[in-house]
């Protein structure tokens, strides 16, 4: 009945690059990956590396607790009002891919309450290798795996490994202990991903997240240009 | 009116945030009140005839064209639990986003502007149905079905209940769903103050218990 | 033969600040007595159940008005037992309560339990109209079945308006003629005593206890307005009253701006 009417008012869709008032909204980067690969640790490290230069906020998507948000709060990587937890009904991939409404609300609330923001990191709860973010929610996504999960993960592929804008292979310091071949992982990843970048990280040292932080800065530069 | 529009709106995959909510079923599972398919059926039946009818009537009334702000106030009065009011508004806001992308309309815009933090979900649902060209009874059907569909899906996850059993529960409730939708649509033709206001004590009590729980799979 | 009766109470505040009762009309089974006030300055009326009522087919009403600044407590001497009417085709009984509290008035409606006897059907409505600065304390308790019997049918609706706007609207349907599921895990979960305490007080506009559990089947909630509702399910009337009494004490203290008594579980 109203299908032909010119739609005005606040944006109905999340992927619009502008906020309702016309200003450019924050860049949104999604971080996904299997359970235990170091997503929350990477988010924490990114916050520490970027918070002095950028206005930052984080949305977490936990599976059955608010633990990821609690971890970030406890470690005081950002003031509490900059961290929002989204509940996912046991299905984080639904909340970041199929029904992004709760996440869109969280990012908009953050922009409204603590904005203007340069960057919002949206962390998925640990999920399987097929979990990807909707383009209606994030502008770019990072997929995080770790060497202890098996050095055949890059070879196996899956949407996260093959299509993410940045593949992070974490916990490189553990490679000798778990018998993972970093060279093989790099070759397999390159084969699966073509030109898409891969970063090897070890977050046990303070500088470990450097390559990821550099990539985020690059994304932000092209977003704002 | 398009019957297919009703299918789109009532589809569990309609991106309006419902997947993260169990409709009180998780709290009932935790309290040991739902242990099997029979319990699920009793839970769904009780919810359908209480808050389900109330929600269906609000949705039908909004689809009928009653003032959504007055209906929102009526919904507040019918929802004593602050946790459930918060959930209803959160889901209403999420549905509003999806509604404005799918069936945009001035009435949706106006209500979104008046309730930026979200109106009660059944009211938004009724407005959405109206914007999609659906009838009040369609809106009531949709609201009534959500009342039982959400818990059934959630209990499949929570108890690893056989999904065929859970779906059979819903199928057996179909005649009662139709009846509730009829009652709701009939009530929607009357004044707002006389819309059904059925409540369920355990749903209110359990909702506050659930909201205070640090570990849970579903938001409500 | 069925009974129609309407009892009326009007309380007003006189020039000296005391509450008087210019209208105190008993009718049929609804006998009203002015009783000794528990709180000084507050008029108290007790509904004395002269006979078992309501029976199927009866239409009873109590109309209470607390005028500007009046302070009135209405209670009852005994539980009300809903009984089946005579004959196999007896109709439902109806019981309508209207409560009005004008500006600055304080009205306490504290009847004893309503017991739904096997085979009975009662439709009960309670409508409260409150002025913005009025205060209301309302308790209602439903006991489903006398000892050892199954319950009758009880349909009730409680509607509270404040300054003309809806504050609380709540319907309950229990018993054999209620729609399915009333006894199940979403509604009563097998409990046979249900009750609530509603406290409406302008003081709760900006302060008031936050929602919390008062036990496994009892909750205190704050309404979308200056009001608190305590909802309780219990195994029996005694247990139910104990929870409601503790909550009443806490809420009275909270309304007066005192720290609530120690939290109880």
UniProtKB/TrEMBL annotation, chain A:
It is found in: Cytoplasm. Pfam families: cobW. Signal peptide: none annotated. Keywords: Chaperone, Cytoplasm, GTP-binding, Nickel insertion, Nucleotide-binding. GTP binds at residues 33-40. InterPro entries: CobW/HypB/UreG_nucleotide-bd, UreG. Residues 29-198 form the CobW/HypB/UreG nucleotide-binding domain. Facilitates the functional incorporation of the urease nickel metallocenter. This process requires GTP hydrolysis, probably effectuated by UreG. Homodimer. UreD, UreF and UreG form a complex that acts as a GTP-hydrolysis-dependent molecular chaperone, activating the urease apoprotein by helping to assemble the nickel containing metallocenter of UreC. The UreE protein probably delivers the nickel. Belongs to the SIMIBI class G3E GTPase family. UreG subfamily. This is Urease accessory protein UreG. The gene is ureG.
């Amino acid at each position: 009945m109203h299908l032909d009417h010119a739609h005005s008012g606040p944006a109905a869709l999340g992927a619009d690059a502008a906020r309702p008032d016309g200003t450019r909204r924050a860049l949104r980067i999604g971080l996904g990956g299997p359970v235990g690969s170091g997503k929350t640790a990477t988010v924490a490290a990114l916050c520490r590396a970027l918070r002095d230069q950028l206005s930052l906020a984080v949305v977490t998507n936990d599976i059955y607790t608010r633990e990821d948000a609690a971890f970030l709060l406890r470690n005081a990587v950002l003031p509490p009002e900059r961290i929002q937890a989204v509940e996912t009904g046991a299905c984080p991939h639904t909340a970041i891919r199929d029904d992004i409404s709760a996440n869109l609300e969280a990012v908009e609330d953050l922009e409204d309450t603590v904005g203007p923001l340069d960057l919002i990191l949206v962390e998925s709860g640990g999920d399987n290798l097929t979990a990807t973010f909707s383009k209606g929610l994030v502008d770019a996504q990072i997929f995080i795996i770790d060497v202890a999960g098996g050095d055949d993960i890059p070879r196996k592929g899956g949407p996260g490994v093959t299509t993410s804008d940045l593949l992070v292979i974490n916990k490189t310091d553990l490679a000798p202990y778990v018998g993972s071949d970093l060279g093989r992982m790099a070759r397999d990843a390159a084969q699966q991903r073509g030109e898409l970048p891969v970063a090897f990280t070890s977050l046990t040292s303070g500088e470990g997240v450097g390559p990821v932080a550099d990539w985020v800065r690059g994304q932000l530069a092209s977003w704002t240009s | 009116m398009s019957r297919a529009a009703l299918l789109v709106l009532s589809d569990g995959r309609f991106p309006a945030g419902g997947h993260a909510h169990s409709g009180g079923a998780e709290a009932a599972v935790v309290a040991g009140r739902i242990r099997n398919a029979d319990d699920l059926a009793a839970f769904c039946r009780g919810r359908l005839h209480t808050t389900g009818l109330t929600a269906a009537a609000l949705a039908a009334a909004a689809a009928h064209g009653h003032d959504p702000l007055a209906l929102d106030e009526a919904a507040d009065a019918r929802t004593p639990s602050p946790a459930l009011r918060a959930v209803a508004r959160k889901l209403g806001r999420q549905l509003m986003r999806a509604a404005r992308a799918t069936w945009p309309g001035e009435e949706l815009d106006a209500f979104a502007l008046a309730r930026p933090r979200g109106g009660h979900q059944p009211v938004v649902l009724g407005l959405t149905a109206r914007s999609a060209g659906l009838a009040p009874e369609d809106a009531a059907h949709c609201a009534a079905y959500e009342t039982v569909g959400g818990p059934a899906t959630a209990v499949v996850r929570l108890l690893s209940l056989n999904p065929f059993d859970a779906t059979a529960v819903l199928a057996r409730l179909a005649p009662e769903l139709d009846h509730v939708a009829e009652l709701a649509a009939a009530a929607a033709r009357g004044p707002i103050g006389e819309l059904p206001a059925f409540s369920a004590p355990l749903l209110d009590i359990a909702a506050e218990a659930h909201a205070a729980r640090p570990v849970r799979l579903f938001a409500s | 033969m069925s009974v129609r009766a309407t009892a009326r109470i009007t309380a007003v505040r006189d020039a000296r600040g005391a509450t008087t009762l210019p209208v105190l009309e008993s009718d049929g089974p609804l006998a009203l007595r002015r009783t000794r006030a528990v709180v000084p300055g507050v008029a108290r009326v007790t509904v004395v159940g002269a006979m078992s009522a309501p029976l199927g087919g009866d239409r009873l009403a109590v109309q209470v008005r607390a005028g500007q600044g009046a302070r009135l407590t209405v209670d009852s001497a005994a539980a009300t037992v809903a009984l089946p009417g005579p004959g196999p085709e007896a109709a439902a009984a109806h019981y309508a309560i209207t409560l009005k509290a004008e500006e600055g008035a304080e009205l306490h409606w504290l009847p004893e339990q309503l017991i739904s006897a096997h085979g009975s059907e009662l439709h009960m409505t309670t409508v409260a109209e409150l002025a913005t600065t009025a205060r209301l304390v309302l308790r209602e308790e439903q006991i489903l079945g006398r000892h050892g019997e199954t319950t009758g049918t009880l349909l009730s609706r409680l509607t509270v308006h404040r300054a003309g706007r809806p504050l609380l609207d709540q319907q309950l349907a229990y018993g054999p003629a209620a729609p399915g599921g009333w006894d199940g895990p979403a509604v009563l979960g097998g409990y046979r005593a249900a009750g609530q305490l509603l406290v409406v007080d302008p003081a709760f506009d900006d302060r008031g206890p936050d929602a919390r559990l008062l036990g496994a089947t009892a909750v205190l909630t704050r309404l979308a307005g200056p009001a608190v509702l305590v909802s309780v399910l219990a195994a029996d009337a005694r247990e139910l009253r104990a929870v409601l009494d503790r909550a009443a004490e806490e809420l009275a203290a909270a309304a007066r701006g005192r720290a609530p008594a120690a939290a109880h579980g």
